[in-house]
Structures are given as structure tokens and as C-alpha cells.
Amino acid sequence: xxxxxxxxxxxxxxxxxxxxxxxxxxxxxxxxxxxxxxxxxxxxxxxxxxxxxxxxxxxxxxxxxxxxxxxxxxxxxxxxxxxxxxxxxxxxxxxxxxxxxxxxxxxxxxxxxxxxxxxxxxxxxxxxxxxxxxxxxxxxxxxxxxxxxxxxxxxxxxxxxxxxxxxxxxxxxxxxxxxxxxxxxxxxxxxxxxxxxxxxxxxxxxxxxxxxxxxxxxxxxxxxxxxxxxxxxxxxxxxxxxxxxxxxxxxxxxxxxxxxxxxxxxxxxxxxxxxxxxxxxxxxxxxxxxxx
Length: 292
Hints:
Elements: H1 2-16, E1 18-20, E2 36-40, H2 61-69, E3 76-81, H3 93-105, E4 112-118, E5 124-126, H4 142-169, E6 175-181, H5 183-197, E7 203-208, H6 214-224, E8 234-237, H7 243-252, H8 277-287
Parallel strand pairs: 2-4, 3-4, 3-6, 6-7, 7-8
Antiparallel strand pairs: 1-5
Helix pairs in contact: 4-5, 5-6
């Protein structure tokens, strides 16, 4: 059945044709406000140089440094890495939602600076589904984008988080929150895998439906719960209905479970309702630093 579905998918892709998504900066809209920075990585882990709004000043990564030095960056920084099928195009839904999220947070105190970590979430698009919500036919890009997300994390985003940590130690940033969704969760994880293990790590990580195996996460999460006051700095939220992660990800990692299939690592948000003994015993064991 699986082979038949893959064959049909590939046939439709061949018939409909594909367009290449260039490995270049995608944001070309108005210059973002001071409470939002957009940092775009290429597939090799380098940072794209972006110019926004035509003749307006270019906002490079250096602009963020200047904002820190001039105290324009708020004490609380939220970093979000998007997942598969997304990038930094002005009309990208992830970017629009993140912008709205930051603006809502800043309607009250404390204030936050948002950093949208963008990368080429799609390497190609099927022509008749381009710019639509129907993405099933470019499922074949999952293999390549999965590899690229990890590479950017290890060879680009890690340096960016190093920079944020340095500013935090200097007292220029108070709180850092790193959020990653889907393959963005994979990117954030590999950018901070060793940082999470550090006993004095002060960055909080939220991974939403991350494209990771349970083995990727097990050691780090079990180490994380042993931190001071038993307060974890890493939380993983997994939806049981995330087909690309629970089903598709298993195809490209044969023999491994995705995080979404491993109850001992994550659960759906309702797992501990109705006195779910299995979930509650797992949480109790984790809080005691045990391996459930």
C-alpha cells in the first residue's frame, strides 16, 4: 500500500512538473519593525544578506548587533525557526503568525524582541500546488530538507545561539526562548544539543512536533530534568495527528521511532487528563531523574 501511494505521488509529480525554490533571501517586504528581526540561512548554514523596502537601509545580521549595543533590543528574546514548506516570504503564514504573536505579547509588559530564523523549507514546489496549502505532492523533498535542517543547526544557527548566549552573559539580554516547529525543531535541537546539557544553561527551548527520533532526544531530555530545582529547560509538544512526523519521518529513518511515536518522551497535550496512569507515572519518574 505504501509503495503504491509513493508510486502515485511520484507519477503525479512527474506529470505536473516542479519549480525550483532558489537558495536566496526570500524576504522582500517592508523593513520589519524594531521588535522583529528576520535572519535567513542558506543551505550551507551561512546567513543571507537581506535588503528590505528598496532604498531603505539593509538589515544584515550586523543590524542585530547594533540593536543590542544601542539597547534597542528588549531584554526578552524569542527565537522561532519555522518548519518544512515555509521560508521568509512576506506572505508566509508562519512569518505572519509569528509577527502577530510578538505584537500581542508586546501589548503588555514585559516586552519582547522576536527573531524569525528562516531557511529554505522547500527546495522545490509542484507547479499546480505552488503557493497553496496542498503540499502532499512534494513529499519527496522531506529527505533533503530533513538533512539541511540539521546541517544549518550544526553549522549556522548554533553560532547565532552562541552569540545570544554571550549577550545574555554580558547582561544585555535577560531571557532567551528558542522555539522550533517540525524541521525547525530539528534545526533548533541540533543548534543547541550541547547547550541543553550545560548545567548553567539559561535558555528555554520549546520544540513543537520536532522532526526528531526518540533516540535524538532521550539523552538530552533525561539530562535536562536533573537541572537545578528539577526545572526542565526543554519541553517537547507533539501532536498525534502530525502525519509527516509520525508516519513520513519513520520512512526516512527506518528502524527508529519518531518523537511523536514515543510516549516515554512526549505525549499529546491531553495525555495526562482523566488520571492517565501511564503518563502520570512517566512524568513522576522524569521529575525524579529516572529513565521511565
